[in-house]
Amino acid sequence: MPDGGASGAACSSDDLIELLFFAYRDFVGDPDRILAQYGFGRAHHRVLHFVDRYPGLTIAELLDILRITKQSLNRVLKDLIEQGYIVQRTGTSDRRQRLLFCSGTGATLAAELTRVQARRLARALAMPGGAGGSPESFLLAMIEPDERAAVRRLMARRGQGVGEGVGPVGGEAGDALDGKILGQDAA
Amino acid sequence: MPDGGASGAACSSDDLIELLFFAYRDFVGDPDRILAQYGFGRAHHRVLHFVDRYPGLTIAELLDILRITKQSLNRVLKDLIEQGYIVQRTGTSDRRQRLLFCSGTGATLAAELTRVQARRLARALAMPGGAGGSPESFLLAMIEPDERAAVRRLMARRGQGVGEGVGPVGGEAGDALDGKILGQDAA
DNA sequence: TGAAATATGTCAACGAGGCTGACTTATATC
DNA sequence: GATATAAGTCAGCCTCGTTGACATATTTCA
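Above: the input entities. Below: the structure tokens describing the complete assembly.
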């Protein structure tokens, strides 16, 4: 039975669902703050990232990666092109294609965004149980350090005493228990 | 040097950035399809999930978990309450609070959504290098199997020949190279 | 007891970023 | 020369985030 050894408990898929939510929330939070200063959003980030990393990408390839429509892509791509972060060249073998490249400015911004995300990842990998441990410990390490305690505390609440009320509500329509139920339209 | 042993290559933070994107894309794609049948979206899912898992959650706690505004939460919470998936009770120790619980229907839907996500996770954990290997192999295992080859192919493209054009564009304003540059407003 | 703080709900307006559908323009292919 | 393909665009819609202002019930504290 592989348990990774380090700080992670046994992997429960149910716990991982939440950890993935928290890890991703904080993972995209870093670049979001930077992007806001440029008037860009997450959609711009994704485009800039993939164009930076795979120069010469075509529109069709980008659409396949991002899984969004041409119209959605075009809105953010247009911003990035007009503001000089991305440039297009016509394809040489197929002149219908538009090959996408980052400009110098674009590459600089992409690097800045990559830096903060890579920093979080590197920090997580460097933690005990980060690189070689369980997915659980890796994802926990990806969460903002200040928040980790709160997440642990929440997840420890699993199952036992709810604090206030009792267990889950039984009926579909709300059969009045000890706590008053604020129903759909009941007086 | 910990390498996890199994199928993952050495962990590069830069690769992990992309793998996390692809893994998360497919991870939320599963429930999205189910939610659409109920006329719900991702925001409903998040609320339903946390209320199901932590019965008796207060509004304030939920806001802290989701990191959204009261108004945003209220819109989706209202849907879930009106349609009978979630019920509220007034708190007993503090009657200002509204404790949130899933109804039977709500718990059923939550379970259905959890099931597809847990299935993907369990499958990933069961793969060689899934539970005990590197984060890289775990994330790759989280990607939709049909898509894995495409992701690998894309990531293999890293660095070398672009296929069509040449390297990254140097100048800020677009100095005409061999491929014609379709500039901002140049004729 | 009365004032202030707290938990929640709500109205209005706005922006980002998805979507569909329809249509145009270049270019390639047969 | 007809047809298919890559890309761009217009219009309109939906979800889900935001801010700001304000109402109500309840608790806490001086």
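Note for the figure: The first strand of chain A starts at residue 57 and ends at 58.
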